[in-house]
Design brief:
The chain has three helices and seven strands. The protein is an alpha+beta fold. The protein has a domain of about 90 residues: Ferric Hydroxamate Uptake Protein, Chain A, domain 1, CATH 2.170.130.10. Strand 4 and strand 5 form a beta hairpin.
Length: about 140
């Protein structure tokens, strides 16, 4: 019985090693533009954090021109779907779990055509304080 158990463990080790080599470590998705597009508007994150208590990232967008915010729902230019969020180079559909106080800078890109189909409803680019430090500035 021990022999059979040992073979199973060896098989699990081989499969795990093959998956790790084949898949590799998670890679950072590089945005199509290394700089923020010219059509982007910067959000005054620090100013808004000083003015009132902000508990979720979406609240930072309240009052921005062309942006509709209702709870956790964000719409840019009246689109039916939510915008693409780019947080430190990673694409996501929501900023859930991100603390507003961890944000160093934020931009709204109404025309996210440089980000493909996912950016058609606008793009919100966020640079966190940790991400900024990792890139050296």
């Amino acid at each position: 019985m021990k022999r059979h158990h040992g073979k199973r463990l060896a098989l699990v080790a081989v499969v795990t090693a093959a998956l790790m080599l084949g898949c590799g470590p998670p890679r950072k998705i590089i945005p199509p533009k290394s700089i923020v597009p010219a059509s982007a508007r910067e959000v005054d994150v620090q100013g808004k954090l000083k003015k009132r208590q902000i508990s979720i990232v979406e609240e930072l967008l309240i009052g921005e021109p062309g942006v509709y915010v209702d709870g956790r729902t964000v719409r840019i230019r009246g689109s039916r779907r939510g915008p693409l969020w780019v947080i430190d180079g990673f694409y996501t559909d929501t900023p859930a779990g991100l603390n507003p106080r961890d944000i160093a800078r934020m931009w709204i890109v109404p025309d996210g055509s440089g980000y493909g189909r996912r950016g058609a409803n606008g793009v919100i680019i966020i640079q966190t304080k940790v991400g900024k430090d990792e890139r050296g500035g």
